[in-house]
Write a structure and sequence with these properties.
mainly alpha; globular
């Protein structure tokens, strides 16, 4: 489970606004491993988690039968095509990554509204073996406006600022 130190009514409202903006713009990231039924249900489940839940409640809601393709996206492995099975933790991976992304976007927006220049990198989830690069980032101040723009532009890809980094347990908090 993640620790969300600034997840209150104000942050949730900003998360909802960020999610709604992506939905209206047609750029909400829909996990590529979701089935058509899962993809159809996902936006409302994400909104529901932002309203009253967490990444854990979103993952639980995404574990419904029929929400996931049994096979991952085909990819080339050497000279042959590989079609791996969808990992058993696919719901957690998507829920943690996207809930964290919208939480971070909301906190950046909140920091700017409160005339704060930066947000602080912190460990939101304990990981078994933290990477040295992640450990070195703890306590780092990041420009809130630049991070927000980065997160809004890098939907479905890796942000320039390196947050959120899958599996790192890193997020941000207000100063």
């Amino acid at each position: 489970m993640f620790d969300w130190p600034d997840l209150d009514a104000r942050t949730r409202q900003l998360m909802l606004e960020e999610i709604d903006a992506d939905i209206r713009a047609g750029k909400l990231y829909i996990g590529k491993r979701l089935s058509s039924a899962g993809a159809l249900a996902y936006p409302e489940l994400l909104l529901q988690a932002a309203r009253t839940g967490t990444e854990a409640s979103l993952a639980a809601a995404l574990r419904q039968p029929g929400f996931w393709n049994s096979r991952d996206t085909p990819r080339m492995k050497g000279r042959s095509l590989s079609v791996p099975k969808t990992p058993s933790d696919a719901a957690e991976i998507l829920a943690e990554g996207e809930f964290n992304r919208f939480y971070m976007r909301a906190l950046c927006q909140r920091a700017m509204e409160d005339h704060l220049d930066s947000v602080i990198v912190h460990r939101a989830k304990v990981v078994e073996t933290p990477r040295l690069e992640s450990e070195q980032r703890l306590g780092e101040a990041i420009d809130a406006r630049a991070l927000l723009e980065d997160l809004r532009q890098s939907i479905g890809g890796k942000p320039r600022h390196g947050l959120p980094e899958p599996g790192s347990g890193l997020s941000i908090r207000l100063p």
